[in-house]
Amino acid sequence: MRDFYVFLGPPGAGKGTQAKIVAARMGIPQISSGDIFRENLTNQTEMGILANKYIKVGELVPDDITISMVRGRISKADCARGAILDGFPRTPAQAEAFDGILKENGCRINKVPFIKVPENVLIERLSGRLTCRAEGHVFHKVNNPPREAGICDYDGSALYQREDDKPETVARRIRVYEQQTRPLIEYYMERGLLVEIDGDRSIDLVSAELTKILLDDEGNDV
Length: 222
Ligand code: AP5
Ligand code: MG
Description:
Strands 2-3-1-4-8 form a five-stranded parallel sheet, sandwiched between helices. The chain has a three-stranded antiparallel sheet with strand order 6-5-7. The radius of gyration is 16 Å and the shape is globular. It is α/β, with parallel strands linked by helices. It has helices spanning 15-26, 33-42, 46-55, 63-74, 92-104, 119-127, 167-181, 183-190, 203-217; strands at 2-7, 30-32, 83-86, 107-116, 129-132, 138-140, 159-160, 194-198. The protein contains nine helices and eight strands.
């Protein structure tokens, strides 16, 4: 049985930061729907150009586009041992579709860590975020600066500020999260999958807790 993990939380909670660390420790891929859309925009694909119309104003990309994109991604060979999903599902329709896709493939969700962070901290994190062009590695001007200004520590690509990290778009994204994604907390709680994590701590403390919860569960050494 392939196990999938869904990292849930508002914009800026640290889903991408943590999913990258924990996925590397577990030896499974991190799948970020936002990163895939941004990659498609960089490559000027039809999907990337369409998705960007929603992303740049802080709205969600329509469910049908997002679901078929993730369906395709998790069918790739590197997901043979499962994966960590970061930013998907984020509507009840996506969650139901994802359950169906996993069932068809004999897979399941093992856990849904919900990374909880107060709104004022989210705004501060997003306003200082720097993202790498190549693979979406994230840094923060103050909390997590790169070794060399403007350059990604991992792949040497240029760092930039995401267009949707402007204050008015951040406010919109947080409202969209409250309206459309927050209901998933209850969805996964009812299914006994939700694990709440205090995300308002250092990156290392949060990743240590997540690693313990996810790896312990597989019976591996932490
Ligand atoms: P997406 O890219 O998923 O953005 P998001 O959900 O808004 O989340 P973020 O990436 O902004 O935050 P994060 O939780 O990953 O935080 P990070 O680790 O970077 O989606 C973008 C857009 O794509 C959406 O608005 C939508 O339009 C579209 N989209 C994507 N998925 C979709 C879907 N399923 N359906 C429909 N549309 C979809 O950390 C943030 C900052 O904080 C960084 O600077 C980091 O260094 C810093 N930081 C992290 N942790 C800590 C810590 N513990 N202490 C201090 N600083 C920290
Ligand atoms: Mg992210």
